[in-house]
Design brief:
By secondary structure, the chain is α+β, with helices and mostly antiparallel strands. 26% of the residues lie in helices and 26% in strands. The chain contains 6 helices and 14 strands. It has a 6-stranded mixed beta sheet. A hairpin with a 7-residue loop joins β3 and β4. α3 runs parallel beside α5. The radius of gyration is 17 Å and the shape is globular. The N and C termini lie close together (7 Å). The model has no long low-confidence stretch (mean pLDDT 98). The structure holds one DNA strand.
Length: 255
DNA sequence: ATGGCTTGAGTGTCAAGA
């Protein structure tokens, strides 16, 4: 089973890329972030025509998440339960016995800002909820745009990013807090090349110079980590015309 | 030099992303 995550930075603009990528990769599950679409205009018909079922949780202009699946989705949950938040950042569903949680983590803008405080609160709420979710669902996968580079090796220029947003101590501690729930970073289960990133700034030719960060992740509970046979970033869609600034991250789970 | 692109909203140009 192939599971993946991709921040598409507007599904309206990126739908052709998404459909092409699904056809190429034959992914079973794709979690999307930054769809930026209200539910009433979500392109469900086009996605279903491609052979996928879909659940979504969106809003106008900002945020918005979705889970696309070749298999049936059940027990869909939208937003973090008991956490009051108008921003549409979370959707979860059970697929083939796997609890799939799709998250678009807050950016945080700048360390010390109001948005940074919101990011840390949000991370705490997510972690508290996932502690319960992990107990209820031994097979759990957390996929999404975490907006956290977990370690210096996930950053093209660690010195320049030292202590900055996406790399600060508190954000990395929150990432470690998710790992403490038993969730493993699928990418780091395997030997990987150096300087693999999942996001590159549109400006300054960031992609061509590989000036990026690894901030999109797939975290797996212990039984799923045992089943995981590979995890990679697919840079191909980032090379297309009008790409998202993020590339998809893909993991393979043995049956 | 805190810029640089891209998107959405909306028709000026700004907010937000990371």
């Amino acid at each position: 089973m192939k599971i993946a995550t991709w921040n598409v930075n507007s599904l309206k603009v990126r739908l052709p890329h998404v459909l092409d990528w699904l056809a190429t990769q034959q992914a079973d599950i794709l979690c999307l972030q930054e769809t930026k679409l209200e539910d009433k205009v979500f392109p469900a018909a086009e996605i279903e025509a491609a052979g996928y079922r879909v659940a979504f949780n969106g809003q106008k202009t900002y945020n918005g998440v979705a889970i696309l699946s070749r298999h049936e989705l059940s027990d869909v949950v939208r937003d973090i339960p008991a956490y009051d938040d108008p921003q549409k950042r979370v959707i979860a569903a059970t697929i083939n016995g796997v609890r799939v949680v799709c998250g678009y983590f807050p950016n945080g803008q700048e360390v010390g800002s109001d948005k940074y405080a919101y990011k840390l609160k949000w991370l705490e709420a997510l972690t508290n909820w996932l502690r319960i979710e992990c107990a209820n669902y031994p097979q759990l996968a957390l996929l999404g745009d975490f907006n956290i580079a977990p370690e210096d090796r996930d950053v093209h220029d660690p010195a320049a990013w030292q202590g900055k947003i996406l790399c600060s101590e508190s954000e990395r501690a929150a990432f470690a807090g998710l790992q403490k729930l038993g969730l493993a970073d699928a990418f780091r289960l395997f030997e990987q090349p150096e300087k693999v990133f999942s996001w590159w700034d549109y400006r300054m030719m960031g992609f061509r110079r590989n000036q990026g960060l690894r901030i999109d992740h797939i975290l797996l509970s212990p039984p799923l980590a045992l089943r995981c046979s590979s995890c990679l970033v697919d840079k191909a869609p980032r090379k297309l015309e009008r790409p998202s600034d993020h590339a998809p991250v893909l993991a393979e789970l043995a049956p």
